[in-house]
């Protein structure tokens, strides 16, 4: 296995790749254009499969100690609850909620415990492959590495250097988030989904004790919430556009892509960060075992499946018509038949 490995990007994907290599005895070089870990949080949910990966790397215990183990998904039509789905199906699996910046902090700590460090304030400026490896320019200085993983997000410099297209589309209309402190929100362990007229929706996700994220399909999240919420502190608010895109191949030669550099999709289903963590773990294992040639095909298929699932959920729940009504009918039935609810929850937690 080559000992000159460069990981570009220190988000959850890049840090997972770094930890996975470090626990196999190789300390990669990790660069991050930001001056420090971001205090902002994009992703929230951690699936059981991701926690298995993070367990092996030594970050899981600290994450579990801080995260909220979600109890149920509670579906509302407007303000009225119409169905619940258990998110603790009785087999020990849990869907955990934790701000992305805290997940990153625990991954960084796990990497540093193994002797690694992240070079903050270092941006990749150029990348070119030749017969001797990969030439990179970082901070105005040229160097060579044997392997590169681009985990540098949706606007990836590594992807651009490879000349890979980012096929797909950007959806019309703004979505929004608001991260708030609310001392008396009545669903502190529940994923609350409010389905609104016109195909809109507003979702409240616990982030920590008394802290919540409100996500909405409009430009301002809090005004779309159809029930009252006491906001003691507004930590962050903003609007964004949804991209649904994927590269046709996850790398070329000695350079591969993972996470948002390779795929982006809507937050419906909460799969984005989990998919990047899985990309990173697979890449590190394949690199260690000398079978990297299968990485692109395997992860492209996984990414395509996740995008299809996310788009199915978005088109089903974020429309005001028969598909949404049918989904709610199934969920209402699952509410009455616990075995069906556990089965649906099991499939969600396994995917």
TrEMBL record:
InterPro entries: FAD-bd (IPR002938), FAD/NAD-bd_sf (IPR036188), RIFMO-like (IPR050641). Keywords: FAD, Flavoprotein. Its cofactor is FAD. It comes from the Bacteria. Gene3D superfamilies: FAD/NAD(P)-binding domain. GO terms for molecular function: FAD binding; oxidoreductase activity, acting on paired donors, with incorporation or reduction of molecular oxygen, NAD(P)H as one donor, and incorporation of one atom of oxygen. Residues 4-196, 231-308 form the FAD-binding domain. This is NAD(P)-binding protein.
């Amino acid at each position: 296995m080559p000992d000159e490995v460069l990981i570009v990007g220190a988000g959850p994907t890049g840090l997972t790749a770094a930890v996975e290599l470090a626990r196999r005895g190789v300390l990669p070089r990790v660069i991050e254009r930001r001056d420090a870990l971001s205090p902002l949080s994009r992703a929230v949910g951690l699936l059981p499969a991701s926690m298995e990966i993070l367990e092996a790397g030594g970050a899981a215990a600290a994450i579990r100690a801080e995260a909220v183990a979600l109890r149920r998904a509670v579906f509302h039509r407007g303000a009225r609850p119409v169905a619940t789905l258990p998110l603790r199906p009785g087999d020990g699996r849990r869907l955990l909620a934790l701000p992305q910046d805290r997940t990153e902090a625990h991954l960084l700590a796990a990497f540093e415990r193994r002797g690694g460090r992240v070079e903050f304030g270092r941006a990749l400026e150029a990348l070119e492959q030749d017969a001797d490896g990969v030439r990179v320019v970082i901070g105005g200085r040229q160097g060579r590495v044997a392997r590169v993983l681009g985990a540098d997000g949706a606007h990836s410099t590594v992807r651009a250097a490879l000349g890979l297209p980012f096929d797909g589309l950007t959806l019309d209309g703004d979505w929004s988030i608001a991260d708030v402190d609310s001392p008396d929100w009545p669903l502190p362990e529940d994923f609350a989904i409010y389905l609104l007229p016109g195909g809109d929706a507003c979702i409240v996700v616990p982030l920590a004790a008394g802290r919540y994220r409100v996500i909405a399909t409009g430009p301002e999240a809090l005004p779309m919430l159809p029930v009252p919420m006491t906001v003691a502190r507004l930590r962050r608010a903003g609007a964004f556009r949804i991209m649904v895109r994927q590269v046709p191949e996850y790398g070329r030669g000695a350079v591969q892509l993972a996470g948002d550099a390779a795929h982006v999709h809507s937050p419906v289903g909460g799969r984005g960060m989990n998919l990047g963590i899985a990309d990173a773990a697979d890449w590190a294992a394949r690199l260690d075992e000398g079978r990297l040639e299968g990485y692109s095909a395997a992860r492209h298929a996984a990414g395509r499946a996740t995008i299809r699932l996310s788009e199915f959920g978005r088109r089903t729940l974020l429309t005001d018509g028969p598909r949404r009504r049918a989904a709610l009918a199934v969920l209402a039935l699952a509410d009455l038949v616990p075995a069906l609810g556990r089965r649906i929850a099991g499939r969600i937690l396994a995917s």
